[in-house]
Amino acid sequence: MKKFNKMLSVVLILLVLSMALSGCGEKGTTPTAESSTSADKKITLKVMFFQAGFGDGWQKWLKEEFEKNHENITIQLVGDAKLMETITPIIESGVDAPDIFMTNGSKWEEWGPQGLVMDLTEFYDEKVPGTDLVLKDYISDAAKDKFFFDLGKNNGGIKKYAVPWSAGPMSVVYNGKLFKEKGLEYPKTWPEFEALCETIKAEGIAPLTYPGKYPNYVKPFMRSWQIQELGPERFVNEFKNPSDPEIYGDPALLTAWEKFDNLFKKGWIMEGTTALDHTQVQMEFINNKVAMILNGYWLEQEMSEAWPEEYEIVMAPIPQDGKIDTPVSFINMPDYISIYSKTAYPEAAKEFLLFSLSPESCEAFAKLAGGLRPFKYDLDNVEVSEFTKSCQDIIRNPNYYQFTDASSNPFMYKTLGNDYLTKIATGEMTPKQVAEAFKKDAATEFEKVKKDLGN
């Protein structure tokens, strides 16, 4: 009995010590993400951004305005002109990872299911500052098609891992001053566009160029030709949401490859284009060596230090052709913002992200960076350049057919076929050969995605 009592005493002492240590442990635990953002806790949010076309004026504005109302939060801005390349090892390794990053591409689609970027599905139910709308109602329908990522019923359904940074027209930009001097008018139909190219060529000026080293700039032509040939219904229901890969071998798509080939055969593309990058062809455009360039709404800001005095550039739609009876407006959505999943300050990061989406912030983006965003706001009271106004017209004009190639459907074969475009441009492959190769590639990718998703 004495032995039992002695053992019981030891157990009771250990129990008391355990409870005491447990209590001490609770008091000394690492603060939660929510408590770490309290007013008496000084924190720093690291924000990395792709410092290229839009410069850094908007990010600096975000920092200043956000810090005014969040005295305990410091925004550390890190601009990187090569962020598209450097962000992958940073996010995948977690070394020196930012809390928030703004870049372009579609890596978030891969990183989301892997748990490398924050799941923002519930975040889309948050009210956007300065509005009466929650984010899922504030974002445009075209952007939903891209950012509402469909993992399939067996894999979690619709998820959101990013928000749009910018979105705007990618199309033909023409030299307005040159057009006025030569008495030229931008055409409404494709046959008229071809005639315009002949007229410009006869003047001894190259009609058209694009960054040959980056064939993705041809996207506004290729996607517009594809939708014009297929028709909107088939483009949306079959091309963007395929039930099988047969659509990517449709004869209608051959026409797009042939139209691209014809630009070179007719001598309408500036000589040497295929060897030049975006900066080089943009300088040729600025120096009046070429009348039109395939480019995006970021062009003016990206080359802000190179424009001569009294320059005029105008964004224009892709001329009418095929099964659509109006010019078409291709809206590009290359840029996005995500939150790193292992940020120590998730609530502060989300608060900063919400502020970056507000109408006030969108207005500042237009004013400081010449950029547009796919949200429900207006720029009626914002002073912007004539070029930005022409970009706004492309988006808002009711007389243009508006579309984007963005799709959350994982089965869509999203590639433009950049290597094939280059091979057509250099004469290495014919449009027919490219069409056959593209069809095979699409079928292979379709089966791979099907296997990956377990379907």
Which features would summarize this protein structure in a list?
455 residues; alpha/beta; D-Maltodextrin-Binding Protein, domain 2; 2 domains; six-stranded mixed sheet; five-stranded mixed sheet; 13 strands; 14% strand; globular
Low-confidence stretches: 1-38
- CATH class call of the largest domain: Alpha Beta
Based on the structure given, which CATH architecture of the largest domain is correct?
3-Layer(aba) Sandwich
Mean pLDDT: 89
Helix/strand/pairing category: alpha/beta
Shape: globular
CATH superfamily membership of the largest domain, which one? Periplasmic binding protein-like II
Number of E strands = 13
Could you tell me how far the N terminus lies from the C terminus, measured between alpha carbons in angstroms?
68 Å
